[in-house]
Amino acid sequence: MRLFLIIFIFCLIITPLSFSQSQTRSKDLYSSYLKGLLHIEKGNYAEGLKELGKAKAKDPQSIHIRLKIATVLVRLDKIDEAEAVLKEAKKLAPDNLDISLALIFVYSYAEKDQALEDEYEVFLRKAHELKPKDVGISEYLAQFYFYKKRPQEAIKLYEKILENSPDYIEALFWLGYLYDESGRRKEAIDTWKKGLEIDSDFAPILNSLAYTYAKEGIKLDEAEKMIKRAIEKEPENGAYLDSLGWVYFQKGDLQKAKEYLTKAINLVKDPEIYEHLGDLYIKMEDEEKALEYYKEGFLQFPDNRRLKKKIKEHEK
């Protein structure tokens, strides 16, 4: 009980209730609020909800009470009611991050994915506005934009992160990746090179730069050395093994390419690895085997246009 009261007092300090009422009404307000919390502590959620409802009636502007009510409603599995209470609170305080966090939880619990994503973006943007130099918040928002396939917004955030933290190697990796995905390959390569100046053994950048060289068919010896260093760090990383396989493919060593690409597909199912294996068997003049890999990849990734195109080309 003592611990519970300490927590209760702490909550009052960080999120105080309104003092707009008269002294008597304030006492009634705190009485209802405290009774509600005590009922909740004992697992009497329905009774707790009644008392919190009384407290809300006495202080209709209180966000804190609404958050407590929403929490109890979730415990009672009244998700729609909890959502309604939180939306009501959001109208009163649209910039309150606690409300956004609570809505994120409710949408996640209710499996309302689109509403969850929308509220998550709102939360991250507001948090970023409050703390624009906080690297963690900026990166969460950048990763959200990456997930939503909004690379230009993610690029701006990573560029800003690097203005404040120029040696942050994770940001250098992601910025290079986003540049590359946006067709800005030279900028990607330059960014990754900066990263390797900071940490010459950073495996994700070693892999990305090596694979970029392999795709272009340039600096293949350097690419082979880099990707082998990455594999030393993460020997079971299928993406890295695929990159090494593609380096060997470009060098014309088809047996080694087959060895590493086969290892890669056994570790991770990725449409690009299926395509690489198909291309390898085309090069080895085994069109039937190539089609097997193209089709298997397309079966697992039916939205992949490149695999679909290659199936059509070689079925003829």
What does this structure look like?
- With 316 residues, the protein is mainly alpha-helical.
- It has helices at 2-14, 23-41, 45-58, 63-75, 79-92, 97-109, 113-130, 135-147, 151-164, 169-181, 185-198, 203-216, 220-233, 238-251, 254-267, 271-283, 287-300, 305-315.
- The protein is elongated and about 85 Å long.
- Residues 1-25 have low confidence and may be disordered.
Mean pLDDT: 87
Q: Helices and strands, in N-to-C order?
A: HHHHHHHHHHHHHHHHHH
Shape: elongated
Give the helix/strand class. mainly alpha
The CATH class of the domain at 1-93 and 101-110 is identified as Mainly Alpha
State the end-to-end distance: 77 Å
Continuous helix count:
18
Strand content: under 5%
Instruction: State the fourth-level CATH superfamily of the domain at 1-93 and 101-110.
Output: Tetratricopeptide repeat domain
CATH topology of the domain at 1-93 and 101-110, by name, is Serine Threonine Protein Phosphatase 5, Tetratricopeptide repeat
* Rg from alpha-carbon coordinates: 28 Å
CATH architecture of the domain at 1-93 and 101-110: Alpha Horseshoe
Low-confidence stretches: 1-25
Q: How many E-type strands?
A: 0
Helix content: over 70%
Instruction: Tell me the major beta sheet.
Output: none
